[in-house]
Every structure is written in C-alpha cells, then in structure tokens.
Design goal:
It is a single chain. Helix content is 62%, strand content 10%. The protein is built from 17 helices and twelve strands. The protein has a five-stranded antiparallel beta sheet. The N and C termini lie far apart (64 Å).
C-alpha cells in the first residue's frame, strides 16, 4: 500500500483537475452562450429604438397596434429560430424528460406567436417580449445540451480516476465494470437540494425572461434612453449568468463526488474521510466535517458527503490517515501541516495576527462588489487623484489616513453649498427664469424667487447624481426634485436650472449616489 499521505495528494490533485475543467467549460461554453444573448439583445433594443420617435412617449408608442402584415417577416423570423432550436434536439444526447420539456417550451412560444398573428395586430412591446422569450429559450437549450454532455463526460472521467487512485494506492489491480449510460444519466438527473440541474436551468431562465420583460415595460414607462435601457437589460443577463456559473460549479462537484463514491464501491472501500480545504474561505459546515470518517453506505450528499452547499470545494479520500495536509495562509501561499490535523485544530493553532489577516481577507471578499461600486463613484468624483482599486482597498481596510482623506473630499463634494453669483443673472438665467418659471429676473424680487427655487432643489432633492455636462471639463453634480434639475460644479458653483430637466438624457444616465 502507498504511504498514507498519497491519498490526500491524489484526492486534491484530481479535485483540482476537475475544478479546472469546470472553469474551462464556463469560459468556453457557458460565457459564450450568454455573450451571444447579450449581443443579440443589444441589437434588438437598438432596432426597436430606431423605430420610435424620441420626442413622443415611449410607452404610448410601444403599445401602438401595428397590422400583423407589417410584422409578418419578424414573426416568421422568430418561428424559424424556434425550428432551429428543435433541430438542435435531433443530435443532442439528452434524457427524454429534458428533451420533452424543451419541446414543450418551444411549442408554447410558437402558439403565442401564431395566436398574435391570427389576431391581425401586434404591438412593438409585444413583439419585443416575444423576442425576449425566444432569447431566454435559446440560452436555456444551449445550457441544457452543453451541460448534460459535460456532466456525462465528467462522471466517466472522475470514475476512472477514482478507480485508478484507489487501485494504485492499495497496490492491486483488478477488472472493474465501466459505468453504463443509464447509470450516468440517473446520476446527472438526480435531485440535489430538491431539484435536478435541468429544472434549475428552466427556473432561472424563466425568471430571466420575466425580469427582462418587466424591465422593458418599466423602462418605457420611465422613458429610459437606449443606453439606460440596454444597461439595465444586460445587468439582468449578467445576474442569470452568475446563477448559471454557480449551478455548473455545484453540479460538477456533485457529479465528481458521486463518481468517486461509485469508484470506492467498485474497489471495495467501506469508509471515507471528509476532506475540506484548509484556507480562510472554507464554510463552517465543511470546517466541522473536516477529517471525520464515515461509512460509505451512509454517505449522503448535503449531510456528510460533498457538496454540502453551492460552490462547495470539499472532497473525500479513502479512510487511511495521511501524514501531511496542504493548508493555505492569508497571503494565498500553500504549506504542509500534520495529516491528522482537523480544520478546527489547524485554525486554532494559527496566530492571532494570521487569524486577523484571514478575517480581513474574508471581509474584502464579502465586500468586493460594493467596494468596486464605491471606488467607481469616488473615481468619477475625484478623478485622477484617486489611487488604484487595490491601493484604495488597502487604505480602506487598514484604516489608513489616505482613506479618511478620500472620504472627506467626497463628503466636501456632497455637502458643497450652492453658489450663485449675481453675475450669473444674465441672458442664460433670464431665459430659464423668464420663460420656464415666469420670474422677472430684472427685478430684485424675481432674482430672489429664482435663487430660492435653485436652493430648494439643491437642498431638498429627490435624487442626486454625478455625470458629464457639455462645455464642462470636470464631472458635474445633478440635483433633481420633481421635474426640476439643478446642475452644479463639484465645488457647488451653479451652472443651470431646467424645468422638466428630469428627462434630460445626461442626467438620466448619470451615476446616482
């Protein structure tokens, strides 16, 4: 039999190999599918906005009824795309329940299109919603076909690796049974946390379709610009893509561990040891299970066998105690520790400083998205004086004075008092004050009324944003109250006031804060 640390090294090496394959799949298959959806969605929105009159209500135009004959070619185009989705099923090696569900969803969209065609009329919004349904169906089908094929290959590869690992470790070789396609299908379609991978894909994609259509409708009600509408729609696609990434990582981990468990059975292994990753990211449940031994017959995913949760990185090894284990410090570097050390013993043995550094890195991870958004805002406000994102985070989490200085400068911009000089009551203000609001700025009373309105919008705003303004080299601040818009420089110097300025494209696309 091989030395006892062999088991952990091979288990971790095979787990890393499987994880890398999953990341390759995400990069080469999943991301590509979502990129194509995003690109097509952008093109569809652009084409729709080109048909609408920007000077009129977008909502009213989107609900205008058009003769179906004028949209016949578009409906036919969508029906052709649905036929292409059907053809994909011909060459796909999918379980019947998956292919039946795909055909059912295709049929629902076909019936909806044909019904609208027969009615004689269809609106811009209805047509766009049908396109969204078609896009959602397309990415769902792509994920179903690609993911099933990937998981089937993953199971086969991990099963053979598991058998090889055990036989080499035990120092014997014997004939073994290769997994048959029906067994592999059963493993892949097995429910995890109450649902199969296929049902999870449909659930998420259906949600994507609903949120995209909801975003479209609300965008037309608000009168969103094409840039704002596109940005909001693509953000919804990115959320769906994140869910799909988590799904394939979790399902890949489950299939990998199921294959390993079947390899243990084939080789006569009766006990396994739960093996968590020794680093700061390990979940509490995996910390608790680490290095515990369980009978193979009692192994149950989510209770005492990985994956225990989405994105779980734990694995198992045959029950022989290893001499060494691999741990990872807060600095990300690996080092060896005693093989019998559990997660709790390993963590308790770390210095307080190292535990503090790990806690700090975990905090950074948890706040990664918020920190990036915060940095983006501060960069817009402070420009070239802002450090890099990495430096900014170091200042922030190490409570450096440089971070306090950044916060103070941002606060100064937020709290900058409005400054309207008497010189500004010229032709420009005369136009907006006289024509838009009826103030006679030639009189003291009229100027005071106009100044009071500016100050009211500035100090009692509904929304505040930072963005760009014509003729201004630096960013400007937008203050919006009701239909009124006040524009100032970063130091509070007044630039302009608009009645109905809420619909101003620059203000609408500016960053709220």
């Amino acid at each position: 039999m091989k030395s006892t640390d062999y088991w952990e090294k091979r288990a971790l090496r095979d787990k890393k190999f499987a994880t890398n394959r999953t990341e390759d799949y995400i990069k080469n298959k999943l991301s590509k599918a979502y990129s194509e959806v995003s690109k097509e969605l952008e093109e569809e929105i652009k084409a729709l906005y080109e048909k609408l009159d920007k000077s009129k209500s977008l909502l009213a135009q989107s609900n205008e009824k058009l003769l179906t004959s004028t949209k016949a070619s578009e409906i036919k185009e969508l029906l052709n795309k649905l036929n292409e989705e059907k053809e994909k099923l011909t060459n796909a090696n999918l379980p019947k329940e998956v292919s039946d569900t795909i055909e059912k969803n295709i049929k629902l969209i076909e019936e909806s299109l044909k019904m609208k065609s027969k009615s004689g009329y269809i609106t811009h919004l209805e047509m766009m919603q049908e396109r969204v349904n078609s896009l959602a169906l397309s990415v769902a089908n792509e994920n179903q076909i690609n993911m099933y094929d990937y998981l089937a290959k993953e199971y086969t590869d991990d099963y053979f690796r598991g058998v090889f690992r055990v036989q080499q470790g035990m120092g014997f070789g014997k004939d073994f049974i290769s997994p048959n396609p029906k067994l592999i299908q059963n493993v892949i379609m097995r429910s995890y946390a109450g649902s199969s991978f296929s049902k999870r894909i449909w659930k998420d994609v259906n949600k994507l379709g609903i949120t995209l259509k909801d975003t479209l409708t609300k965008g037309f009600i608000r009168g969103d610009s094409i840039d704002t509408m596109t940005k909001r729609l693509l953000e919804r696609v990115d959320v769906s893509k994140s869910h799909a990434k988590m799904l394939i990582r979790t399902e890949s981990a489950r299939v990998c561990e199921e294959a390993t468990k079947d390899a243990y059975k084939e080789c006569g292994i009766e006990q396994y040891i739960y093996l968590a990753t020794l680093d700061r990211k390990t979940s509490l449940i995996c910390q608790e299970l680490d290095m515990k031994s369980f009978p193979l017959k009692d192994a149950k995913i989510g209770e005492n066998y990985p994956p225990m949760h989405p994105n779980c990185r734990s694995t198992t090894m045959a029950d022989t105690k290893p001499l060494k284990r691999i741990a990872r410090g807060a600095d990300g570097k690996n080092y060896e520790v005693d093989g019998n050390l559990s997660y709790k013993d390993w963590y308790d043995g770390l210095s307080k400083d190292e535990q503090g550094r790990m806690s700090l890195e975990n905090k950074k991870d948890a706040n990664r998205k918020r920190d990036k958004e915060e940095y983006s805002l501060y960069k817009k406000l402070l420009g070239k004086s802002m450090p890099s994102l990495a430096e900014y985070k170091d200042y922030k989490y190490n409570k450096d004075d440089k971070y306090l200085d950044i916060k103070k400068r941002v606060a100064d911009i937020k709290n900058a008092p409005i400054k309207v000089s008497d010189k500004q009551f010229g032709k420009k203000i005369g136009k907006h004050g006289g024509y838009d609001y009826g103030f006679d700025i030639r009189t003291k009373e009229g100027r005071e009324q106009y100044r009071a309105l500016i100050e009211d919008v500035r100090y009692n705003f509904d929304e505040r944003a930072v963005g760009d303004w014509r003729s201004q080299e630096e960013p400007v601040i937008f203050y919006i109250k009701g239909e009124n818009l006040v524009v100032t420089k970063l130091d509070g110097e007044f630039i302009s006031l608009f009645d109905g300025g809420k619909t101003n494209a620059r203000a609408k696309n500016a960053r709220r804060f």
